Amino acid sequence: DIQVTQSPSTLSASAGDRVTITCRASQSITTWLAWFQQKPGKAPRLLIYKASTLESGVPSRFSGSGSGTEFTLTISSLQPDDFATYYCQQYNSFPYTFGQGTKVEIK
Amino acid sequence: EVQLVESGGGLVQPGGSLRLSCVASGFTFSRYWMYWVRQAPGEGPMVVSVINTDDTYTRYADSVKGRFTISRDNAKNTLYLQVNSLRAEDTAVYYCARDSGRALGDLPHWGQGTLVTVSS
Question: Predicted confidence band at A39 (pLDDT cuts at 50, 70, 90)?
């Protein structure tokens, strides 16, 4: 199975900050990587697919980059609605594994 | 609008069984691969199983293989997950999810989830 590892596990930031989350895959997944946002009690929401393509309706302050084994999610200017937990997911091969999550907290 | 509504969760003793259901609406159900994804408390999601459009191809995570069975009824727009021989570690919210149609494993559509608690 392909393992995906996120860092950091927790991130404290203020509104307006630029935030970057990293995801590493245990082997190359080319660009078969997605990023999700999840709030308590809700299902995950797809933000980015194919490493860098913004899902319809997602604000442009979210962006993704990377290929192979290293990927990043960047929020250019953190908004109050963005405090949540973020997951990366590889869908290069089954089982389609998720990272352990990065919780973005208010500083 | 795509809607996925799960049901069938609950409290069950170790070794017990449940049948989870997911009723789909707002799209042509028979054209999409479907998934069950679970999330244990405090953990990241995990794809449990996948099924193709006509129920001729299924796959399972190693941790549930031989105990869980995914199926679908395209006439009823319904996805199922039969969960048997339940263990404490199966405690989780179970979501059904729909494929995007762009690539397998690309999951933009999720239901609200149904909670399965395995405890004596």
Answer: very high
